[in-house]
Design goal:
This protein is α+β, with helices and mostly antiparallel strands. It has two domains: 6-73, lambda repressor-like DNA-binding domains (434 Repressor (Amino-terminal Domain), Orthogonal Bundle); 92-241, Umud Fragment, subunit A (Ribbon). It is 24% helix and 25% strand. The chain contains eight helices and nine strands. The protein has helices spanning 6-17, 22-29, 33-40, 50-58, 66-73, 95-99, 144-147, 223-226; strands at residues 114-120, 136-143, 152-156, 172-177, 186-191, 194-202, 206-210, 219-222, 231-241. The strands form two sheets. The protein has a seven-stranded antiparallel sheet with strand order 3-4-9-5-6-7-8. Strands 1-2 form a two-stranded antiparallel sheet. Helix 1 (6-17) runs antiparallel to helix 5 and helix 2 (22-29) crosses helix 3 (33-40). It is elongated, with a radius of gyration of 22 Å. It starts with 5 loop residues before the first helix and ends with a strand.
Length: 244
């Protein structure tokens, strides 16, 4: 967790309050008015909990989002405001070029030293059909020593949610399948059945899934949410082959 910036949070909170008085705003948020007043008057040295931030965001005005509150509170890093337009996925005929790499199989290497990794066509759910032969576009090759004791697959980055981590839509991702959520790592997940990338921050009572693009809202999941259908974890991003 980053440092709590009281002054920056004060500015965002006042904007979220809008023209409402402190008492009215606090009542609508479900937070005590004295607590809101202390935040506005810079009398608190610790940031609000994620539970309180979520309540404030739900009642905020002037388009203040949960992400806007999380940044100065120190829960996520301050991100660049520059955003590129979403790119089209790369054409299949460039896939071979992207898969060419010194780590991949060549006629000069032994077949005993490499392992085939499938490039998946579609991901709609984390189930046994994922690696069905009809869902495999083609194969790449990895050094066997790098992929032993785990299952890997390739897939396109589905969106620009991690653009400021230099992952653009259409880049080829190497995914370690079935990995449990790990703090600060980037994962390919299905959130409410929508495929996306998110960086994971694990707290005691909840997990925050953030993007590195301000167009994409963060998700705050309780431990109960993690066991429900709102999220399916496909795997951890271990390598990116950038689009040419």
């Amino acid at each position: 967790m980053n440092e709590f910036n009281k002054e920056a949070f004060q500015e965002v909170l006042i904007t979220a309050k809008g023209t409402r008085g402190v008492n009215e705003f606090a009542l609508q948020c479900g937070v005590s008015s004295s607590y809101i007043s202390e935040l506005i008057n810079l009398k608190r040295s610790t940031p609000p909990s994620m539970n309180i931030l979520t309540k404030i965001a739900a009642s905020s005005r002037n388009d203040i989002s949960l992400r806007d509150l999380m940044r100065p509170a120190g829960y996520i890093e301050t991100l660049s405001t520059e955003n590129d337009e979403l790119d089209e996925l790369i054409e299949e005929d460039t896939l071979d070029t992207l898969l060419e790499d010194s780590n991949y199989y060549s006629v000069h290497e032994s077949l005993d030293d490499v392992h085939m990794i499938p490039f998946l066509k579609n991901i709609t759910t984390n189930d046994r059909n994922l690696f069905n032969k009809n869902n495999i576009l083609k194969y790449g090759y990895e050094n066997k020593a790098d992929v032993m004791y785990a299952t890997f697959f390739y897939y396109y980055a589905p969106d620009n949610s991690m653009i400021n981590s230099k992952i653009s839509k259409g880049d080829i991702l190497t995914i370690k399948y079935g990995e449990k959520l790990e703090n600060t790592k980037i994962f390919l997940v299905l959130l409410h059945k929508v495929l996306t990338l998110r960086r994971v921050f694990i707290k005691e009572d909840y997990v925050v899934l953030t993007s590195d693009n301000s167009k994409f809202e963060p998700f705050v999941l309780t431990r109960d949410n993690l066991n429900k259908d709102c999220i399916e974890v496909l795997g951890k991003v271990t390598y990116v082959k950038f689009k040419l």
